[in-house]
Amino acid sequence: MPQLRIALAQVDAVVGDLEGNAKIVLDRCREAAAQDAHLVVFPEMMLTGYPIEDLAMRASVIQASRELVETLAVDLQAQGLGDLVVYVGHLDRAEGVADGPGVPKNAPTNSVAVLHGGRVVAKQAKHHLWNYGVGDEMRTFVAGHTINVVQVHGVDVALAICEDIWQEGPSAAARAAEASLLVVPNGSPYEANKDDVRYDLVSRRAREGDCTVAYVNTIGGQDELVFEGDSIVVGPTGDVLARGTQFAEELLVVDLDLPAATPRMPDPQESFGGLRIQRTIVSSEPLPAYEPRPAEVRDRLDDLGERYFALVTGLRGYVEKNGFRSVLMGLSGGIDSTLCGAIAVDALGADRVFGVSNPSAWSTEHSRSDAADLADRTGLRLDTVPIASILDSYEELLELEGLAEENLQARIRANIWMALSNRDGHLVLACGNKSELATGYSTIYGDAVGGYAPLKDVPKTLVWELSRWRNAHAETQGQQPPIPEHAIAKPPSAELRPGQLDSDSLPPYEVLDAILDAYVDRDLGYDDVLAEGFDPEVVKRVVALVDRAEYKRRQYPPGPKISRRNFGRDRRVPITNRWREHA
Amino acid sequence: MPQLRIALAQVDAVVGDLEGNAKIVLDRCREAAAQDAHLVVFPEMMLTGYPIEDLAMRASVIQASRELVETLAVDLQAQGLGDLVVYVGHLDRAEGVADGPGVPKNAPTNSVAVLHGGRVVAKQAKHHLWNYGVGDEMRTFVAGHTINVVQVHGVDVALAICEDIWQEGPSAAARAAEASLLVVPNGSPYEANKDDVRYDLVSRRAREGDCTVAYVNTIGGQDELVFEGDSIVVGPTGDVLARGTQFAEELLVVDLDLPAATPRMPDPQESFGGLRIQRTIVSSEPLPAYEPRPAEVRDRLDDLGERYFALVTGLRGYVEKNGFRSVLMGLSGGIDSTLCGAIAVDALGADRVFGVSNPSAWSTEHSRSDAADLADRTGLRLDTVPIASILDSYEELLELEGLAEENLQARIRANIWMALSNRDGHLVLACGNKSELATGYSTIYGDAVGGYAPLKDVPKTLVWELSRWRNAHAETQGQQPPIPEHAIAKPPSAELRPGQLDSDSLPPYEVLDAILDAYVDRDLGYDDVLAEGFDPEVVKRVVALVDRAEYKRRQYPPGPKISRRNFGRDRRVPITNRWREHA
Q1: Residue B237 has what DSSP assignment?
Q2: SS3 for A89?
Q3: Are B512 and B537 contacting, i.e. CB atoms less than 8 angstroms apart?
Q4: Do the bridges between strand B232-234 and strand A271-272 make them parallel or antiparallel, or are there none, so unpaired?
Q5: Which of A158, A171, A176, A472 is the most buried (most CB within 10 A)?
């Protein structure tokens, strides 16, 4: 059988940085060539980054991407890399599609170009537009109608783009076209356990298509989305031939033995399932036999480790890609801000992380000592600005008590963080968790203040689990656990009035999070939630809290999605909404 | 020709209030029957309100809507209204469509049911899903594949649902089916000049279909969207037979002479353009001749009046549907908050509007006197809480100057508004305009604070125009102009440092707004903006400001869309985005 050495470029493309992304392509192609690879595959929408949302419809962006992919082919050739066959995702335009109602402006396509010998030798646009969950591709793209089969060193290579492989069709098409390799560039966001689902899918498609599947995913953080990489090569029997690292850039080089292409006459009518099959021959001669190298099959992270690194990757992406030097957060000594501090130190290094303790009259002694302990363990910088005198200055002018007074304390703290941010250029982090955000148990313009919210999609029970995981992980590495045990063990409190505990206002977090998983993550109605065995009064209370807090969530900063259904891109419900799940 | 008296129910359905919306249907049907109407048409998604976003995919909501439409038919009959033929928009489920990737969960449809004689006699689901601009229907609905023709008193009546009529097809289908009346229930949001576009469209479809078109639109505010009504009946020659009021509920009753249906044998294979034609005969006998009544053709508002009432309608909808008793806003004496105050008084009445003046050391005397003048003219309640002592209390603890100090003043004001909101239950209004939001010329967690932002989609130059329009409108009504002339005439200033003017930081508003119209509303790239004749340096500066302020816009409250492209549902770009229009 002919051999082929392929390189999967699992890289972090930055949205909108077309020149920078092209440089990544050149650099990784040079690296692939140095390792004698023949074919290199980059992720979906490599040149623009992914997702670019409505930028896909702007004529200037389309034009730039179309020109750049041609320039890139020339540059590769000029750098002596013209022999490589390079698959590059980019933004293209479907010619001949008129604009009009229902057709995205400028008829953009989510395309992949195949570069070789200084030219674009083939182009294919995504067939199945991703339009559920966090995907909105029917808004911005038109679908493609060709299947491109490129013959490389005597091997027929077919192409499917991300969502295409989640739908029926591409492996049948590859089989019909008698391709023995199916390359799949992706921008597939992380969510818990998706790596298992993804492996099952890729493996099934390989068996269905009787072909090898090379699945390349991007990595990095982009606003609410985190990409984990997890690129994978699966043989026609469904066995894993290579698998990339999670949450890191990598060039995964894999040697394959692939059935030779069937010699055939050109047939302009060739099609499958309504898609036209376009064939391009780059080289029909198999390579002389060479000694294959063993490929990497990286270990998986465990379930908690995977989520922890997703949070780190999301925060790092937001900070670095937006050019912030440092982050600042309020450190209350509570477990949410403590875990945020640990994540920030892991993402950025301790010298870029600033904490502020803002004790009030109701703050406990341990709120200060736990924050100080975190600073000692991690090396982050901790300052203290007490708020009692500022609160007094408001209360000299306004008569306040109860909730109004409690919230004002949280807002004074936020003013201090924002003043320090304005003065010193820090990005402020909001440290609230998903359970709070779901129930509205947070102060808008108070603890909800920030440019990014690392724990936005992390329920409170998972906050504790991740904290314990992080400490245990440190121990396996022979390092000091970053998170003070007392911050994990103490009962949660907002400390906005004397002796206040979260359990005064909310059901126990174990119960709350289970109900939220049913009502929010799985979108069940009242009867279906009840059927899982919860107390009806508690369910009613939780559902009412969630429904009433939608306005707060709309003004909350973005944070990394790690669950099946995050607040933000995933769950889209009206604010003005009188629907109640129970009468 | 047979006669038919139709009633267009231009009503305000509340999202999620299924029982309340069903009661509106019963009440309006009683009113229509009292006026001897034969056929009543309600807007798109009448029973659930529109748009319901992801609620469309929740099984409990679908089930409730499906059951309610059946109950409603029985209730109409029980109330002696069974002879009416009633078109009611509702959420339905497509039977036989499997769930899976790319198919919305529970296969919901945007449907219209035809009720008569205590039963649902026909159902049709929308063919063309609205998926551009502020529409996301491909996310939540599956498309229908039937055209339902219902014969009523010897007249064949066809149906198209909102977006269907914007696409080619429905009038050709009506013509092919030989229907002489096409009813079109809509949930078509307001934007400037859309009434003219809508009239042209409806008129063209009537001529193409050689039929009368009865276009019924909802009215009211729903989060970012405002519906203006503007229901219209157009004859087969394109002439307007009746037209409803803008921005008010109304039952528009119209007598029509319509060609009689052609007698035909049932044909289960009848179809057009891939859609199956389903015929239902409610009554084939034409009515005995009766004396027709003249129909209303209401005057149009002028361009500014239309926008003003859109803002009033949007605010009123948000306040009433969310159950707020009152609104509160900071009144700086500037034109933005002054116009907001006038809009709030028009929307809610003066006794529900509270203003707070928060003078600082840098506030001018006229900032107080202009706010007091507004209060005198409109009757809204004005309180004063100075902020200097509070600012001092922060500055005793933090060394701040420049931007950090300026922003802190705005945030102290916001804390005071929120404390009063928490204490007294007011909805806080953010008074910023679209030009500020575009350029980031506002303080996040400061003047950007609020639950609703009436001027979010109003550029600064339009703020002045609307203020002048409102005063002139008062004069035509013999009332005192609500807006102090000095607030309109004075140069705009944030008053966050001595002598500060907006023109220190921004280009003149006439220039700025023209560039924003090109870059934001029309989504042009740099070269295309320049081609309109602006100074390149000014364009670069404005484009850079817009690009950098995306993070602030994401945390801004919702406000009513009145332009072709609002910040929010319409313009969706990444925060993390290195694309720059100029190199």
Answers
A1: T
A2: strand
A3: no
A4: unpaired
A5: A158
> Which tokens sit at A306?
């995977």
Query: How would you label A40-57 residue by residue, b for 16+ Cβ within 10 Å and e otherwise?
Result: bbbbbbbbbbbbbbbbbb
Q: Which of B29, B44, B123, B495 is catalytic?
A: B44
| Closest partner CB to A575 (pick from B18, B223, B419) | B223
Q: Does A548 reach chain B within 8 Å, measured CB to CB? A: no
Burial class (CB in 10 A: 0-12, 13-18, 19+), B439: buried
Decide if A574 and B102 are in contact by the 8 Å CB cutoff. Answer: no
CA–CA gap between residue B72 and residue B48 (Å, rounded): 13
Q: Specify the 3-state DSSP secondary structure of B232.
A: strand
The number of residues in chain B equals 583
Best A21, A58, A564, A577 residue to mutate vs chain B (most B CBs within 10 Å): A577
CA distance B170 to B151: 17
For the beta carbon of residue B49, count every other beta carbon within 10 angstroms: 31
Q: Please indicate if any CB of chain A lies within 8 Å of the CB of B384.
A: no
Please check whether residue B241 is in contact with residue B203, taking contact to mean a CB–CB distance below 8 angstroms: no
**Residues comprising chain A, all counted:** 583
Q: Is A35 helix (H, G, I), strand (E, B) or coil?
A: coil
Angle at B49 between CA B43 and CA B54, to 5 degrees: 130
Indicate the SS3 state at residue A496.
coil
B418 part of contact set with chain A, CB < 8 Å: yes
**Phi, psi (deg, nearest 5) at residue A257:** -105, 120
CA dist A110 and A112 (Å) reads: 7
Residues A160, A163: Cα–Cα separation, whole Å: 8
B52 touches chain A (CB under 8 A): yes
Query: How many other CB atoms are there within 10 angstroms of residue A441's CB atom?
Result: 20
For chain A, the helix, strand and coil percentages under 3-state DSSP, each to the nearest 5: 40, 20, 40
The one-letter code for the residue type at A362 is W
Rounded Cα gap, residues B535 and B556, in angstroms: 30
Crossing angle of the two packed helices B303-321 and B460-476, in degrees rounded to 10: 100
pLDDT in 10s for each residue of chain A, 583 residues: 999 999 999 999 999 999 999 999 999 999 999 999 999 999 999 999 999 999 999 999 999 999 999 999 999 999 999 999 999 999 999 987 777 778 899 999 999 999 999 999 999 999 999 999 999 999 999 999 999 999 999 999 999 999 888 887 777 888 888 899 999 999 999 999 887 888 999 999 999 999 999 999 999 999 999 999 999 999 999 999 999 999 999 999 999 999 999 988 889 899 998 899 999 999 999 999 999 999 999 999 999 999 999 999 999 999 999 999 999 999 999 999 999 999 999 999 999 999 999 999 888 888 889 999 999 999 999 999 999 999 999 999 999 989 999 999 999 999 999 999 999 999 999 999 999 999 999 999 999 999 999 999 999 999 999 999 999 999 999 999 999 999 999 988 888 888 888 888 899 999 999 999 999 999 999 999 999 999 999 999 999 999 999 999 999 999 999 999 999 999 999 999 999 998 6
CA gap B547, A17 in Å, rounded: 14
Task: Give the whole-angstrom CA distance, residue B485 versus residue B335.
Answer: 10
**C-alpha–C-alpha distance, residues A69 and B39, integer Å:** 59
Q: Nearest by CB to B554, which of A416, A449, A558?
A: A558
- Of the candidates B149, B151, B106, B110, the residue with the CA atom closest to the CA atom of residue B130: B110
